[in-house]
Write a structure and sequence with these properties.
236 residues, alpha+beta, Immunoglobulin-like, 2 domains, four-stranded antiparallel beta sheet, disordered N terminus, disordered C terminus
């Protein structure tokens, strides 16, 4: 994924302040021309009241200071975005566990991890498509703690559903019908980073994930090396 949104966002902000500065300069020139003309043709016996145009000059100065403040804020935002983007690129190529109830369905199916805050009398797992329509439902584990759930991408009638993004909902209840706290996570490799409306996101399995949703990061290179070493020891 090519990241181009950062420069676009920054350029748009810079253009906005630049246009404001140009407009202010144009209005100030017009004001000076009108003031000069009024001074030329004023009645010497009844000169103009200077309070009015003095107040207008003060207003122009105030607007100019506001525009300059906006420019400084835009510069800070640009630096902040660049810093966040630079930090986010360190995730690329690594596997992460992120809090998300959305996952991508492909030929290998879709997978989530869910947690139960306490033992449940009943756990229900419901999957929805991108239109919010329920496509599959089943029961889940009831023990407290972490559980993995893999879905083969088929509906209740066994029909294969198209690849895309699907949402998992987990509801767990006690024997008396009380709700139990649940959490839903996905685990996948970070393929890239992007910026949308000034917010940096990680591209994980085709999904945009906020870095704040990441709860664990694994170095796939080290994991692969460890697996290879284990296999070699087993073979020996």
């Amino acid at each position: 994924m090519t990241v181009t949104a950062t420069s676009t966002s920054t350029s748009a902000a810079t253009t906005a302040s630049g246009a404001s500065t140009a407009k202010l300069a144009e209005n100030f020139d017009t004001f000076l021309k009108l003031l000069t003309t009024q001074l030329q043709y004023q009645d010497p016996l009844s000169p103009m009241d200077t309070n009015q145009f003095t107040q207008q000059l003060v207003q122009f100065t105030s607007v100019e200071q506001s525009i300059q403040t906006n420019k400084n804020l835009e510069s800070l935002i640009s630096l902040f975005q660049s810093s966040n983007l630079s930090n986010a690129t360190s995730y690329i190529g690594k596997e992460v566990v992120a809090a998300s109830d959305y996952a991508s369905l492909d030929d290998d199916g879709a997978a989530w991890t869910y947690t139960l805050g306490a033992a449940a009398a009943e756990t229900k797992l419901t999957i929805y498509n991108d239109k919010g329509t329920k496509v599959f439902e089943t029961t889940g584990d009831t023990e407290a703690g972490r559980h993995d759930f893999a879905w083969d991408g088929r509906d209740a009638n066994g029909n294969a559903l198209p690849d895309g993004v699907y949402q998992l909902a987990v509801t767990a209840t006690t024997g008396s019908g009380g709700d139990i706290d649940t959490g839903i996570y996905i685990r996948a490799k970070v393929d890239g980073v992007g910026v949308d409306s000034g917010s940096v996101s990680l591209v994980v399995d085709g999904l945009a994930i906020d870095p704040s949703q990441v709860v664990a990061v694994m170095d796939m290179t080290q994991t692969a090396a460890a697996t290879t070493d284990t296999d070699s020891e087993t073979a020996n």
